[in-house]
Amino acid sequence: MGNMDKAIEVLEMMMLTNENPFNNFVCSSVISGFVKVNKPDLAIGFFENAVKTYALHPNVVTYTALFGAYYRLGRLNELISGVEKDGVEFDVVFYTCWMYECFREGFMREGLVKYKELVERKIVMDTIGYNVLIDGFSKQGVVEKGVGLLRKMEKEGLRPNVVTYTAIIMGFCKKGKLVEGFELFKLVRDLGVEVDEIMYAALIDGFCRRGYLDYSFHLLADMEKRGICIGIVTYNTVINGLCKVGRTREADDVSKRILGDAVTYCTILQGYIREHNVMGMLEMRKRLEAESVRLDLVMCNNLIKALFMVGLYGDALAIYKRMPEMELTADSVTYFNLIEGFCKIGRLDEALEVFDELRKTSIFSVECYSCIIHGLCKMCMTEMATEVFIEFGKSAVSFDVGMLMILLKAIFHVKSAEGILDFTCKIESLKPEIFDISCNHVVPFLYRRGFPEHAYDVYSKLRSKGSLVTNWSHYCILRALNSESRILLSWPTVSTLVKIYGIDRPEVSRILVHLLCLENVSEALKFLRKMKGDITFPVSVLLELIKNGKALDAYNLVMESKNNLPIIDVVDYTIVVDGLCKDGYINKALDICSFVRKKGIKLNIITYNSVINGLCHQGCLVQAFRLFDSLENINMVPSLITYSTLISALSKEGCLHDARKLFERMVIKGSKPNTRVYNSLINGHCRFGQMQEVLNLILNLEDKGLNPDEFTVSAVINCCYHIGDMEKALKLFFEFKSKGVLPDFLGFVFLVRGLCSKGRMEESRSIIREMLQAPSVINLLKEVETKFKTESMEHLLSLLCDQGRIQEANTVINEVGSMFFPLEKFGESISKSFASQCSTLNDGTSLELETYNEVELDKVKHHGYLDKESQQKEFDSYCDLITLFCSRGELQKANNLAKLVLTAVDKALLCNQALILKKSGKLIRCGMRPGGWSRSPSSNSGELVEAVVPYMANLLLMAF
Hints:
repeat
């Protein structure tokens, strides 16, 4: 602009001589000058003044000079009208300017239109015109068309110059065709064309962009050898290439050998910033100050960022404050660097001050809003962050998902799901599209974090406002409702999906089948049959049905869909088998196993464990052992869980001899018993008061490197309680305590109860205090408080102990126990506790041993008139159940079941079965011996005979 000022001064001096200096040559020169310094408005103003005041008659040269000014201001039509009005003919120079401006703005099609118009008017192209076209094509990445124009240019007798070749070489380098570019470069030299720095710089830039810096240095050396002056632009190209590949220190060394400019220093500073080189950034700052480099906006932005990185926050802010003095205006990058820098170091007040200054300008920066929201969220200032987001949403043209997710995570961290719901209420004032997009991200956000009800609330809000609900939101809501078993609430949503997409869409059909399977398997099967194999039910349905206690539905779904099953592996089938076994449907579980084998799927030991466990649940130990013995025939190795299940069942039924034999067999087979297996044996011996055996087992357990647990201790204390040896119980309690093991709640109950019965109140008080220190007991007491909404049980028991009211404390403890074990005689509860808690093993298979499943009675009632073959098949199972009830003294149950069996099976068949049972000793194996009744209320065989139906009693006596 300085040269233009001098030109205007000369023009004013000419005007003082009273001569008219405004001829076309002078005017076009001044106009061109204004256009070159990017002052098109001044150029047009000067021209209009010359025409109006000095009666200038513009020619094609003047109009050509004006072209750039009018084009850049979007007023080209005014210029064309003026040219046509004055009758001036367009020449090749005018068209060349026109094509140049089109290509400069990236409008290649418009530039080609003007070229065709020039040809149609039969205006002869010159070298400059072709150079403009070739340069335009090369810069747009269509260097092949540029080469074609070069050939045409040569055919027309025009000689390409260094500008022509340089433009094509630049095009090749831009497309990464360095070999072609270098070959053309050598050809140009061979043709004798004088190669200049710009052509070298084009090649050097191409090699640097691709990281071939060695070739760039060879070209620099060649330039020096040929005596070509290397300018700052070429050096900056090399320096930029070095910085981009992480060789900023080398670039810095190169810069020290030349007189650099702002671009040089800015490039090196950017390199050090990328490399996080603190020393390099500090050195560069010193060089800038020492060489008094005039800072431009880009340099200021980079310097601010660098100073934040080295910890000179005050200096960075000082540069920002001095920018007006340097005639620089901060842009979005400036504000972002400042806001980000202050947010990273936690100085949020300064960041907010800069952000407020940004808001006073006309600049709207998504990055700055995102940065300040992130900073506020890090400081848990979610209320202010929400206000900033709302302000952003009211002004934003596009939506920033990243900004929303940062805010949602922060709100959820501070206020959980309730805070997210409050946020959706606050953003209702935003543009509908912003609100819709935000809520459609909130729905899956809440669902993934385990708040399906809140996700449904947001979804309902979208539906009520008539907003667009995305497929992902629909899917999340359906998954949420299904997982929460809120099936009825999901039907309206499914109806909406069906209306939108139709039932033929596979995703909708699968969701519909999923819901039908969970609600009504019969309806689901009807729907699947109507779809004629186009879809099937999702495998996850089986797991959900089992989880919801609908094992029979899962069975029906599999067996009815035999020809249209999804891909189900042995794991999924095992889940179904396990569910059926736990619900008492042993025969159906076996049907599934048979079906799986026919499909060629090999069952694993986990499947067999489930069946064995189910048989043990039903008291069918004979069948369980038959299945166990058959494992060897199919080369299936029993697992620890297999042995543990059977040992636990035998111990529970009092078959301790058999349990010990199986234990020894397990050890011989190389399966190492764990504490739970030992607990099964210990619990069995404890039930019969065999204390010495219990102590031997505990010693054996410890010798094997295993540790007793709380169930071990509780079983031993229970045994001592029942044999009346509280001294032994107390001694063992303190021995285990010294090893860091305390009993569970029931162990404490029996210890306190036994001591109270002996009148040892002070010791009972001490034990109660010990009990209140056990974490498992505290958790159980808190569960009581929550369930029954009582005051602190721990405080109550402590108060009773302090007041010496031990008997009352004992009563409270017993009441708490009865809440959790209401179906057992409380004297036998330890067996129930032990079996339910210690037999849940590693594969997730529950080995909880129920005493009796009432479903079985119903099953017998319904099958009372089976044919003889079926009766014979099921006789063993019923006989085992009767044996089980007799061994426990549950004579009423045994009597009821015996009556049902006698009505269903004729006398001759029973006699045959009795003889078989007698010869095989099956009943003896299952525990039908006097020793097994010793702890029952009716402990002698006479009472047993009186209690059970005479005929069945005779059969049982015959077996002995």
